[in-house]
């Protein structure tokens, strides 16, 4: 009987495996995209950040400035993603086993994962911005 159940669920397992792979690729694209956007913003604001450091801003305030900007962008993306996910769950409800289509714990966990990815992707350019030498930044 377990072999029959195993075969009956094989298409669902395959579909869910594909969804998991695509979710991993989406997470990677989120990290690379946010890193690229923030890296470009830091490069464009090099003179401003150099001026802030020259006028006495400490490294932690520069870090919080850039990471905060990244997390604000991520909050917007997560909000849009949650709305889209609620809209699509009705289509996927037949594939879910043992989980409701609108399971709040799953949605909260995925939002937390994407915020963690966003925080790491924001921290890398922020660290580089905080390490700027103000004299070199102001010369550019």
Describe the structure.
This protein is mainly α and 140 residues long. The protein has one domain (24-139). The chain contains six helices and no strands. It has helices at 2-8, 10-44, 46-54, 59-92, 104-130, 134-139. The chain is elongated and about 75 Å long.
Topology:
Elements: H1 2-8, H2 10-44, H3 46-54, H4 59-92, H5 104-130, H6 134-139
Helix pairs in contact: 2-5, 4-5
Shape: elongated
How many domains make up the coordinates?
1
Amino- and carboxy-terminal Cα gap = 72 Å
Q: Radius of gyration over alpha carbons?
A: 21 Å
Strand content: under 5%
**Regions with pLDDT < 50 over 5+ consecutive residues?**
none
* Run of helices and strands: HHHHHH
Quickly give the structural class.
Answer: mainly alpha
Quick one: how many beta strands?
A: 0
Indicate the percent of residues in helices.
over 70%
Helical segment count: 6
Biggest β-sheet: count, sense, barrel?
Answer: none
Question: What's a quick, concise take on this entry?
Answer:
With 140 residues, this protein is mostly helical.
What features would you highlight for this structure?
140 residues, mainly alpha, 6 helices, 84% helix
